[in-house]
Amino acid sequence: MKKTLMALEQIGKRYNQPDQANGSILEDINLQIREGELVSVLGPSGSGKSTLLRIMAGLVAPSQGSVLYDGKRIAGTNPGVGMVFQSFALFPWLTVLENVKLGLENRPMREEEKLRKALSVIDMIGLDGFEGAYPKELSGGMRQRVGIGRALVMEPDVLLMDEPFSALDVLTAENLKRDLLELWTERKIPTKSIILVTHSIEEAVYLSDRAIVLSRDPARVISDIPIRLPHWRDKQDPLFTSLVDRLYAILTKREAKTPEAAEEQKKKIEKVPAVPAGALTGFIELIDDLGHQVDLYKLADQLSLDLEDFLPIVETAQTLGFAAIQHGDIALTDIGRRFADASVLDRKEIFRAQVQQHVPMMERIIWILHSKSNNKMERAFFEEIFEKHFGAEEASRQLDILIDWGRYAELFTYNEQTRVLFLES
């Protein structure tokens, strides 16, 4: 049995701040990170993946539960981890060497030793010759290498990486992934485990030994999948694609609800995916053109969409009853096929019926507009209601989508200048 480097026990995180909803982000997270593992963390947008990583690092305190490093509970910064951020997080006034050496700022060692370690890491990450360059002189990929170097120079047991490739172009990201994987598989770095937050299922299967899948609102661990394919992995290998399909199926699976739970859900204000009606229409048309059913992995690849952009549109199609997921495929339902084949006016009628049936928030908006003698209501009124559940930023985003859907379905209209929703007579 491999040694457990870090453990999370019943981790929960709840925000109770004026600008955020009063609710759980993470709930009952239990994980063990073992020596020799590269672990990916997957989940829908807003599922708390980055928050979980910051709790592991000790940068954010959990509301409940404990983080253990080397068997001991930590309070404050975790001494055994290094962290790589999506945004590079370099100091523009420092050179490559100075940025990397910054990782050793608080280490009790002589300056000559810090310099030796920093130069060694710079050579290892492929930036030899750029020691005196400033971040503005570097490409995005080179800047991220500096961020990785700054984390590695600390010789952490666990390297935490928060979507480190997402801000890079495709070719640069692929090159950096291969270089990181080479350092890892050939044990050229002292790190004993890597935890990677990613929004790419393919990336997770390509790099990882395990894939942790989180749900949303609040985030819980819904699956822990071992990936036992040898490196280097062929993305065309049927075993590779079957694992990708399996993860897509897990992430798009909808939890079956009892009639009582379904009725209770109607009373709640729940998020809707941020997908405009026009995008959903095009998505349904595409599935129809592909024979009414298509593999999720192939569809995401064809659309060049990562998980953060792809899952919301799949979820919307499911929520409104236009599509269903089975064994990693998405297939149009009967109503979805009717929608795809309908005229413009008939589509609006079908969409109207599905939104009213499946989106309780839309029904509340319509009820409120009908209850007013002039059939009008200011946007601010609805935002105030939603803010109690989602926080200010998400409340505005939710209302934008509901207005888009309501206008498309001709349930109501909206005046952007006066910021008023109203029913047309």
From TrEMBL:
This is AAA-associated domain-containing protein. Keywords: ATP-binding, Nucleotide-binding, Transport. It comes from the Bacteria. SUPFAM superfamilies: P-loop containing nucleoside triphosphate hydrolases (SSF52540). It comes from Cohnella nanjingensis. The keyword Nucleotide-binding applies. InterPro entries: AAA+_ATPase (IPR003593), AAA-associated_dom_C (IPR018632), ABC_transporter-like_ATP-bd (IPR003439), ABC_transporter-like_CS (IPR017871), ABC_transporter_ATP-bind (IPR050166), P-loop_NTPase (IPR027417). One of its GO terms (molecular function) is ATP hydrolysis activity.
